[in-house]
Amino acid sequence: MADPIETEAPDDSGSVTLRRYEYQVHIAAQAVLEMLAGGTVQHVTCEHIEDIVVARSGDPRCVDGGLFWDFQQIKTRDSVEPWSLKDVISKKPLKSLWRTHTAVRGNGLVYQLTAGIEGHLDPGDAPVTALSKGEGAQNVNCRKRVAAHLGVPQDDALDGFLGLVRIRPLARREDVEARNTRVLADLGPGLPMSTIDALYNELLRRTREATQGRPPVRWTELLAVDSPPAAVLGKRITAAVIDDVRQRLTRPDHVLLEDLSEAIHGPETALVRKLRQGAASKEVIEEAKMLRAQADHYRLKEQALGTWPDSPSVETDLDQRLLLLARRIGRSHKEQPQPADAIFDTLQTALHDNPGAVDRHPLYAQDGVLLMGRACAVSDECRFNWGDARDAS
Q1: Distance between alpha carbon 294 and the CA centroid of its chain, in Å?
Q2: Are 135 and 78 in contact (CB under 8 A)?
Q3: If you placed Cys at 314, which of 192, 200, 309, 355 could pair as Cys (CB 3.0 to 4.6 Å)?
Q4: Can you tell me the distance from the alpha carbon of 30 to that of 32, in angstroms, rounded to the nearest whole number?
């Protein structure tokens, strides 16, 4: 008799739902990590009003020193394409955020409404860019389409809602755990990775229990509120809940909270991820991002002027030459303790000294700076890496 595992399931939605649920747990754990770092996060509430509610102190918008509330609706998808306004609308986070806005406005809260999306936004879609910054009311197209989606008039009430909305790109599901674990390792220098992994799994377990509304022992005392309502009981994680984890970590003075926040929330490209894997310094990562942006800008400008060649073979030839050079340099530095820095500097020198060997036609004006930026773009396309510090250690 054939094994039923060989039969295609008529409905595999349960696996997809579980993966998306787990992704939400990892995103909630990011705010818990900020709490561990001593940041502004005071507590995290899961699956109450919204997927995640993060309460922060010290926000300048709270003139009376109260908490600033971030109501987060998390959305995932399998596609790796950038999100347009059409994509955001189709996933319906705005409908959920509108319901939240209707429920909490008038309660004296200072808050924002965040649509957390797996992936990145389409920079060429002006309406979604405006919406992501709380400027949706100023974009006529965005305002009209959101009003139609919500079934509400284009009036002051809609403008007030759009002013509170933010869209935050999030790490993809295949990256989020590695990013969170790396942040936890930064908070506990000297601890073996086995301990870091165990601590992260414990944070996930507690976040998962909060998402399910399962209170631990002494939960009402740890909530730090009087007579918590039944709807919230068991769903809030405070600093007291994770105090034992904090005691296992020794936070170094050089870890800056803004760096931590960027490491958690900033959209991380394949280029940055590969540089980090090669133990790249912060300076090299910033230079790589800047050079890549400069090369992309030059390419787009030339295309707009009509001077970029129509035949893709010219650009393919340049990319292949860059690829061969980068891989050869990468092999020569793979034993370095920080291979990324060594590869980056050597490649930059090689392109500066002999740009014509790569840029024969030329496409990038035989400019070593622009060619280095194009090399970073080629790396971002997953065609070469910057070494692996774990192999070198």
Answers
A1: 22
A2: no
A3: 309
A4: 5
